[in-house]
Amino acid sequence: MSKRFRGWGPEALEFFERLEADNTRTFWTDNRSTYQEAVREPMDALSADVADEFGELHTFRPHRDVRFSKDKTPYKTHIGAVTEGEGGEIYYVQLSATGIMAASGYHQMARDQLARFREAVADDHSGPELVERVAALKRSFEVGGEALKSAPRGYPKDHPRIQYLRHKGLTLARSWPPASWFSTARARTNIVNAWRAAAPVNGWLNEHVGPSTEPPPEGW
Fold first, then answer.
1. Could you tell me if residue 73 is inside a domain?
2. Residue 71: which residues within 8 A CB-CB, separation 6 or more?
3. Which range of residues forms the domain containing residue 19?
C-alpha cells in the first residue's frame, strides 16, 4: 500500500540547495538515500493521490542530458513530474530549492497541434474567446510557452491576436516560494487547485487543438 502524500519536508529543499553547490556524482552517491526518501518518495505518493483525477504522474529522471550542452553538471537541481489529460492538456509539478511550481496547458505543440492552434486563434469567434479566458487568469498565473519573435508564416504582423499566434506552446503556471506548508497535505491542495483553476484555458485548447497524432517532443 502506497504512502499518502504529506508534502516535502525541509530536507528535500536542503538536498537541492546542497546539490546546486556540489553537483557531482560523488555528492549524489553519498546522498542518494536522501533523494529517494525526502524527494522521490513524496513525489510517488503525490502521483498516487492525484491519479484518479489527473492520471499517474511520470517523474523525470534526475540525470541531465549533457550531450549537446556546455553545462556538463550531471544532475538536475529539481524534480519534475507530468501527466496528460484525456483531452491533450498536460499537468506538471516541480520542486526545487526555490519552491514548488504547478503548471498545465500545452507545453510544446507538435506540428499538427500548432496548425490547429493557429487556425483557432485566427478565427474571429474562437480567437477572442481564448484571449478572454487567459486574461481572466493572468492575475493568478504566469502565462508561458515558447513563442516566435515574429509572425508565423501566412499571418500578418498586425493581426489583433498576433501575441498568441506567435506561441508554439501555451501554459499557465503558479509558483510558491519555500513555506512551512510544503511539509503538509496543503501542498497537494495547492497544486491540484492550480491545475483545476486552469480549466477554462485547458478546455479551449482541448476543444480546438487536442492531442497530437505525432510522437511526443523529446524530454516530455
1. yes
2. 64
3. 10-108+141-147+170-208
Mean residue pLDDT of the chain comes to 94
Q: Is residue 220 part of a domain?
A: no
Distance separating alpha carbons of residues 120 and 125, to the nearest angstrom: 8
Dump the DSSP string for 45-58: HHHHHHHHHH-PPE
Lateral strand order in the sheet of 58-59: 58-59, 78-84, 90-96, 99-106, 170-176, 142-144
Dump the DSSP string for 59-126: EPPSB---TT-S----B-SEEEEEEE-TTS-EEEEEEETTEEEEEEEESS--HHHHHHHHHHHHSTTH
pLDDT, tens only, 155-204: 999 999 999 999 999 999 999 999 999 999 999 999 999 999 999 999 99
pTM: 0.92
Per-residue pLDDT tens for 56-90?
A: 999 999 999 878 888 889 999 999 999 999 899 99
Q: Which helix (H) or strand (E) holds 8?
A: none
Residue 158 falls inside a structural domain: no
User: Ramachandran region of residue 77, left (φ > 0), alpha (ψ -120 to 50) or beta?
Assistant: alpha
Number of domains in the chain: 1
Question: Is residue 170 classed as helix, strand or coil in its secondary structure?
Answer: strand
